[in-house]
Amino acid sequence: VARANVLLTNGAEVNVASNGGGSIAINAQNIDVFGKSSLRAGIISPLAGAEAAQAGDVTLSAKGTVRIENSFIYNVVFGSGKSGSLSVDTGNLMIQDGKVPSGLRNQTADYGAGGKLTIDTRQLIISNGSWLTTSTVREIPGGDLIINATDSVELSGISPNNIPNFLTSGTQGPGNAGKLAITTKKLMVSDGGIISAGTSSSGNGGELIIKSTDSVELVGTLKQGLSASQLENIIGIAGGLVSEFVKDGPFPSGVISGSVSTGNAGNLSIETGRLLIQGGAQASVSAVSAGDAGELNVRASSIELSGTSLESPKPSDIIGRSLLTTAVGEGSTAKGGNITVKTNSLTITDGAALAASTSGQKDAGDITISAESINLTGNGSVISAETTGQGAGGNLTLTTGNLAVQDGGKITVSSTGSGRAGDLKINANSIYLNNAAKITADT
C-alpha cells in the first residue's frame, strides 16, 4: 500500500505534551516539517506529572525522506515523570536552516528521567546551524543518542548568525549524560560542526563512540559569533558546554568529550578505515575543573593530522591546530586521560599534533601508539606528552616499523612547570631524522 506524504508548514503545531501519556506517530512516504512548525510531546509545567508519570513517544517513519527546516521536534520533561522516546526511521533525514533553530531534542529539564533518541537512516545531514541532542539538568540520567546511518553522517554549513551544527549528549546537573553512539560508513564534519558528549556539573559525561567503516573526516574551524550563554539559550546545554571548552578560540570541527565542572568526562572511541583531521579540527578529551578527562582510543587503518586553523594565526596546544589530544586546563584538579592509537600509518604534517598535556595539579595522561609507520613533517608537527603545571607529564610509548621525523617535526616529553616529565620509549626497526627534526626529553 502506497504511503501518502505529510507536510507541516507556516507555524503548524502538533502538541500532545501534558502530565503524561500523549504520543505522536506518523507513517508516510515523506515527512516535511517546515516554516517554524513543530511536533511536541512530553511533560510540561503547569501540567507537570507525578513521579510515576510516563510521557508518550514520538515516532516518525518515512520510506523516503524526513526533512526538518526552520522547525523543531521535542520530547521534553519539565517536571517529574519519565520522558518517552524520540525515534526516526527513514531513508534520508535532513535537518537544516537553523534560524529557529532547527532540530530534534529529547531532554529532561527537571526531575524526570530522560528518554532515548534513535535515528535509523541511510543518510543523515545536519546543516546550516541545526542540532540533534539529548540532555539532562537534574539528578536523573539523560537518555542515549543512537545513530545508525548505513551510508553517511554529515555536519556542514552555518546559520545566518554564525552558529555551527551540533550533535550532542550532555548534562548540566548531577544526573549522568547518556551515551552518544554513531555507526555509519562515512562521517564528515566541517564548518565548525561539533559532535560532543560532556558535562558542566557533577554528573558524568556519557561515552562518545564512533564506528565508521570507510572514513571519518574532520575539517576546518569556525570563528565564534555568540557567547556561551547566548548559545545555551538558542541551542540548549550543548551549545554553552562546547563554547566553554574552546573559550575564545574558533569552534573546531570535530568530536569532543569534556568536563568543565566536577563530573568526569566520558571516553571517546573512534574506529574507522581512514581518519583525517585537517585545518584546525580535532578529536579531543578535555577537563578544565575537578572532573577527570576520559580516555581517547583510536583504531584506524590510516590516520592523517594536517595543518592549522585559518581563524587562529597563532595556534595553541589545544586551540587552532589539528589535534588528537587529551588536555587538562590551567589550575584544574582533574586527571588527564590516556591516548591509545593503533594504526597501519600515522602521518602528522604542517603544525598538527598528537598530544597529552596538563597545566593543572594532577597528572597528564599517557600516550601509547602502535603503527607500522609514523611520519612527522613540518615545523610545529609534534607528538608530545607534556606538563606546564604541578602534575606530572604522561609517558610516551611508540612501537613502529619505520619512524621518520623531518623538517622541524618533533617527538617530545617535557616539563616547563613543577611537575616531572614522563618517560619516552621508542621501539622501531628504523628511525630517520632530517632537517632540524628532534626527539627530546626535557625537564
What can you tell me about this protein's structure?
Helix 1 runs antiparallel to helix 2. This protein has two helices and 31 strands. The strands form three sheets. The chain has a 15-stranded parallel beta sheet that branches. The mean pLDDT is 87. The protein starts with 5 loop residues before the first strand and ends with a strand. Helix content is 4%, strand content 52%. With 443 residues, it is mainly beta.
Question: Could you give a short description of this structure?
Answer:
The protein contains 2 helices and 31 strands.
Question: Biggest sheet, in brief?
Answer: 15 strands, parallel
Total strands: the figure is 31
Q: What class would the helix/strand composition place it in? A: mainly beta
Oligomerization status of the protein chains: single chain
- Rg calc: 22 Å
| Mean pLDDT level | 87
- Distance from N terminus to C terminus (CA atoms, Å) equals 73 Å
Beta-strand residue fraction = over 45%
**Number of helical elements:** 2
What is the overall silhouette? Answer: globular
Low-confidence stretches: none
Topology diagram in text:
Layout: E1 6-8, E2 13-15, E3 24-28, E4 31-34, E5 38-43, E6 58-69, E7 72-77, E8 86-96, E9 103-108, E10 117-127, E11 131-136, E12 145-156, E13 166-171, E14 180-190, E15 194-199, E16 208-219, E17 221-222, H1 228-235, H2 237-246, E18 251-252, E19 254-259, E20 268-278, E21 282-287, E22 296-306, E23 323-328, E24 339-349, E25 353-358, E26 367-377, E27 382-387, E28 396-406, E29 410-415, E30 424-434, E31 438-442
Parallel strand pairs: 1-4, 2-5, 3-6, 4-6, 5-7, 6-8, 7-9, 8-10, 9-11, 10-12, 11-13, 12-14, 13-15, 14-16, 15-19, 16-20, 19-21, 20-22, 21-23, 22-24, 23-25, 24-26, 25-27, 26-28, 27-29, 28-30, 29-31
Antiparallel strand pairs: 17-18
Helix pairs in contact: 1-2
